[in-house]
Amino acid sequence: MYNQENVPVGYRTPEEIATISRSFMSRVFSWMFLAMTITAVTSFIWAATPSLMGMLINENGLSVLGWVVMLAPLGFVLLMSFGFQKLSAPLMMLLFVVYSVLMGMSFSFIFLAYSIGTIGITFGISAGMFGIMAVAGYFTKTDLTKFGSILMMGVIGLIIAMLANFFLKSNMMGYIISIIGVLIFTGLTAYDVQKLKRIGMGMGDEGANITKMAVMGALTLYLDFINLFLFMLRLMGGRK
Is residue 77 assigned to a domain? Predict the structure, then answer.
């Protein structure tokens, strides 16, 4: 079907596609930065307030709330991923915000294990690495699809290795796992940014669907950064 200008209906010029893609990526990063800010502020407040930390830890270890805070984020990720089609855009946004708060509460534990200086330096290094790879993924002309598939298999192997080392408790193996983890999530950052850029290029005019996709894209990059940061933190050391 053609319009009065004899242009196929639904056709977009390369400039229009680029504009739509940039707008979508802007939403993705806006949601990611919002989530990171919420997580950082929540974790700092929780760690700096003994009464709040006391809600997560008691004389026997983790409290009931502590276990909920540790395990609930995984449930939120699964709910948002598998419930994407059924969940409304406002509910997706609410879930992402609550997820960010829960992650902040769980991240308060790292202030008990690492010095604030080590956390700050590691965060800065991780942010720089993430930023470089995000830019590389956005502007590269190389198709990273096969590269991403290899990295996803690497994630599975990484999880298996971490489970094994949970019982072995090998410091050397833990160090190697951390190095591999940094490499994998550094690469995944570039892959995921390119994937999201392509998704943005194919976006239509469905406002609610765009919002939901932007939130899920933000969740993907958020997880890339969080995992990169955690593996870097293990490498940096600086435990109290």
Answer: yes
